[in-house]
């Protein structure tokens, strides 16, 4: 049992924090206000080789594990870049793992290096308006025609689709009423986001305005057969392999945003004088902050345990889900506590914690809700009957 980062992991954390210090509070505040994708931040991480942290070296990456990617994503969020900074690179860092694991050598050589080099930008298109968390019910259809697939359907919440030119797409290749199990008959594609066949419409949302989320209306999109990842009909099982790493990264990002919120609040509580003393002398201010610190660090241990298990090739579903749940809940409490600590200034944009509060609701609810995680833990850990 070793609770410390290795020297290399500590170096990643320190280097990323230093790198991100070039993009200060004003940068993120302006991106959020203007709702403009942080292209220069993204490019700086591309130039530093960071997008390929978990991509094998033969395809231009660093070949490191999910633990190292977790350390990196946490440091990005914790630097003050929050979910805006983390989400801008989250999809290339995480979702390409499906291609790494299940793509052919030719697909990997074709698909991975352009993302690492920053030439291709990718989004992840799974969620649908009429299926929600019940992914096997998705309605987007990919029908074989003349050696290709013709795709029709709708997706919702697809992040970065305004700036992406590629997408990982889950679609049904065999109708639901013709498969033995609901998870059968879905296929995964890595293909062009062809705007002549896909109408991308922005969703106006609560926070993280610089990183867009969208509805996609897909009409007769032609997807070549060589863009299918893995066997036809196996797509759902392929994306299941990516779910644990995604929960781990999101959990780490949530801890990061919680930490920066608490650090800002503690600084304010040391400096703000009311009734002739720093407000941090009041235990009503100090204790909630201390409690949040303890909660975030406990959540982080669970997240890092999950990452370590994953990289050892061991089962980590329980820990990845529990870590994401704890991190999401405690990050929310931390950001809310930070806002209350700042009093009225907590509501002013120039103090940044209101932005963290808006953004921390994303890892709380996505990619899987707290309810569904508790359903999973109740069933898998406690042996309770499935409730849905
Ligand atoms: C900012 C943001 C970015 C996103 N980016 C992406 C992206 O890039 N790509 C992508 O594919 N998706 C993305 N998503 C989608 C996200 O993964 C979904 O919103 C999430 O999976 C929840 O699905 P839903 O919104 O359809 O909820 P629903 O399935 O409609 O559920 C609604 C509520 O009911 C609860 N509920 C439903 N069934 C049960 C049950 N059996 N027991 C208990 N409670 C239940 C849920 O927990 C939830 O609280 C994003 C979402 C957000 C908000």
Secondary structure: elements and pairs:
Blueprint: H1 7-20, H2 25-34, H3 39-47, H4 66-95, H5 97-102, H6 105-116, E1 122-125, E2 141-145, E3 148-159, E4 166-172, E5 186-192, E6 198-202, E7 213-224, E8 228-229, H7 235-271, E9 273-274, E10 277-278, H8 283-311, H9 317-341, H10 353-365, H11 370-380
Parallel strand pairs: 1-4
Antiparallel strand pairs: 2-3, 3-7, 4-5, 5-8, 6-7, 9-10
Bound molecules: flavin-adenine dinucleotide.
Flavin-adenine dinucleotide (FAD) is lined by residues 124-127, 132-133, 157-159, 205, 213, 362, 365-369, 371-372, 375, 388.
- The unreliable regions are none
Number of strands: 10
Number of helices, where a helix is a run of at least 4 consecutive DSSP H or I residues? 11
What's the architecture of the largest domain, going by CATH?
A: Up-down Bundle
CATH class of the largest domain: Mainly Alpha
Attached small molecules: flavin-adenine dinucleotide
Which structural class best describes the helix and strand composition? alpha+beta
- CATH superfamily (homologous) name of the largest domain: Butyryl-CoA Dehydrogenase, subunit A, domain 3
Strand content is: 5-15%
Which radius of gyration do the C-alpha atoms yield? 21 Å
Helices and strands, in order, run as HHHHHHEEEEEEEEHEEHHHH
């Amino acid at each position: 049992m070793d609770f410390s980062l290795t020297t290399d992991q500590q170096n990643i954390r320190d280097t990323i924090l230093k790198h991100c210090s070039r993009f200060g509070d004003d940068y993120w505040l302006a991106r959020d206000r203007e709702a403009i994708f942080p292209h220069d931040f993204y490019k700086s991480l591309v130039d530093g080789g960071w997008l390929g942290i978990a991509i094998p070296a033969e395809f231009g990456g660093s070949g490191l594990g999910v633990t190292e990617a977790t350390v990196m994503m946490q440091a990005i969020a914790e630097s003050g870049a929050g979910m805006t900074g983390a989400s801008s690179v989250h999809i290339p860092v995480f979702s390409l793992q499906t291609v790494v694991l299940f793509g052919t050598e030719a697909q990997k050589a074709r698909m991975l290096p352009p993302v690492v080099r920053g030439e291709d930008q990718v989004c992840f298109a799974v969620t649908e308006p009429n299926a929600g968390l019940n992914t096997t019910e998705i309605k987007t259809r990919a029908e074989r025609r003349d050696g290709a697939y013709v795709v029709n359907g709708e997706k919702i919440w697809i992040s970065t689709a305004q700036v992406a030119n590629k997408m990982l797409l889950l679609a049904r290749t065999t109708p639901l009423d013709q498969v033995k199990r609901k998870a059968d008959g879905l296929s995964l594609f890595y293909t062009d986001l062809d705007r002549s066949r896909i109408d991308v419409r922005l969703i106006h949302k609560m926070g993280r305005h610089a990183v867009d989320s969208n509805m996609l209306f897909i009409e007769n999109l032609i997807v070549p057969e060589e863009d299918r990842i893995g066997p036809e009909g196996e797509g759902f099982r392929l994306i299941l392999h990516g779910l644990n790493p995604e929960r781990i990264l999101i959990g780490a990002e949530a801890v990061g945003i919680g930490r920066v919120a608490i650090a800002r609040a503690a600084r304010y509580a040391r400096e703000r004088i009311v009734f002739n003393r720093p407000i941090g002398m009041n235990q009503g201010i100090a204790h909630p902050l201390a409690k949040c610190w303890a909660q975030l660090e406990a959540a982080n241990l669970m997240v890092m345990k999950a990452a370590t298990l994953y990289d050892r090739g061991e089962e980590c579903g329980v820990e990845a889900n529990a870590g994401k749940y704890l991190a999401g809940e405690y990050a929310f409490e931390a950001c809310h506590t930070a806002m209350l600590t700042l009093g009225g200034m907590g509501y002013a944009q120039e103090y940044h914690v209101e932005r963290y509060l808006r953004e921390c609701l994303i890892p709380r609810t996505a990619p899987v809700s707290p309810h569904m995680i508790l359903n999973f833990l109740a069933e898998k850990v406690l042996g309770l009957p499935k409730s849905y």
